[in-house]
Amino acid sequence: MHLPNGQNVEQTDQQRNNSMITKVMLAAALSLTGATLAQAQDADMSFFITSANPGSGADLGGLAGADAYCSSLAEAAGVTGKTWAAYLSSSAENARDRIGEGPWMNANGITVAKSVDDLHSENNNLTKETSVSETGEVINGRGDTPNRHDILTGSNLDGMLEGNACEDWTTSGEGSAMVGHHDRTGGGDNPTAWNSAHPSRGCGMEALQGTGGEGLFYCFATD
User: Fold this and answer.
1) How does DSSP classify residue 8?
2) Global pTM value
3) CA dist., res. 101 & res. 94, Å (int)
């Protein structure tokens, strides 16, 4: 059977197949390009809030345990080859001295601070929308259920030790640790401070939840 323009059915079917193959190859190329861009963006991530507490409230296994947890979450999110430090102060080390020099970028490709001084100034870009988890998810804040805006820091506004930081992050019992508000709102002496809003009621998970938290903390890449 021949078509009016002289082409036969077999030729027309072959043209359709070729066109379909071209479309599939183009879609695959676009998909791979998108994946490459996503991987490049993920690889640039150098700041996040932990999506969950390791399991024992403010007992994080000390600074070493908190750092290891930051690393494990980053690797699970596909970011490898970086050295991570928790933004936590202890009697041995201040938070601001252990996180590198910056700049720092979140999982969505947004720069949150250019340097340590910028981080601890009013010029930083830390908000509820930018202080996201290792997977780029927004963390619940005041007005959400449950409220998770109390972020463990043990630090004052300058990023230096404030209080005993739940015995240097080794207890989930009595004690207290300074927390910040990642959504920059709430109660306390400095309700809009991301790193030093008020002390926690205790060091266990129930006590941390009592003021609007879940034992989350900030992680920064030091390199």
Assistant:
1) B
2) 0.82
3) 14
Range of the domain at 118: 45-221
DSSP codes of every residue in 126-191:
--TTTSBBTTSPBPP-TTSSS---EEE--B-TTS-B-S-HHHHHT-SSS---EEEETTS-SSSSST
67, 177: one domain: yes
Q: Tokens representing 145?
A: 């259920």
Does 140 reside within a domain? Answer: yes
Q: In the numeric block, which tokens belong to residue 2?
A: 């021949």
Is the pLDDT confidence value at 125 over 70? yes
Spatial distance between the Cα atoms of 178 and 113, rounded to a whole number of angstroms: 21
The total number of structural domains in the chain stands at 2
pLDDT-wise least confident of 12-26, 110-124, 209-223: 12-26
